[in-house]
Specification:
The chain is an alpha+beta fold. The chain has two helices and six strands, in the order ββββααββ. The chain has one domain: GTP cyclohydrolase I, C-terminal domain/NADPH-dependent 7-cyano-7-deazaguanine reductase, N-terminal domain (GTP Cyclohydrolase I, domain 2, 2-Layer Sandwich). Strand 5 and strand 6 form a beta hairpin.
Length: 129
């Protein structure tokens, strides 16, 4: 294979450092393994963050997400591991990861984890008519 999974997160400089803006990514092909049965678990990851100095490079993110495919992990653990790794790599002003796992045994599981920089507060919500 020309590319391989990787745990490295590449970054690039935030091109609008003075602005708060949100980057949203939908990652519909996440897979890991159930640590109890070894069966595959499938999820859609919804990543959103307000960058500070750095942004996540998309190909690196794809290879990072791929690195979980053969690993056993509970939903709660893998969601928090991913957000911790990404937040350490870019130190965003705010980051939220929502992991929506496909049905297993008649149960859908969603895990939502957030990280916020100390002292950062979002702008008030704007409601348009």
């Amino acid at each position: 294979m020309p590319t391989q999974p990787s745990t490295a997160i590449e970054t690039f400089a935030n091109p609008a450092l003075e602005q708060d803006y949100t980057i949203r990514m939908s990652i519909p092909e996440f897979t890991c393994l159930c640590p109890k049965t070894g069966q595959p678990d499938f999820a859609t990851l919804e990543l959103e963050y307000v960058p500070d100095r750095l942004c996540i490079e998309l190909k690196a993110l794809k290879l990072y997400i791929w690195s979980f495919r053969g690993r056993g992990s509970f939903h709660e653990a893998v969601t928090n591991e991913i957000i911790d790794h990404l937040a350490r790599a870019i130190a965003p002003r705010f980051m939220r990861l929502t992991a929506r796992f496909n049905v297993r045994g008649g149960i859908y599981t969603s895990v939502i984890a957030e990280r916020r920089a100390p002292g950062w507060h979002p702008a008030p919500a704007v409601t348009l008519p």
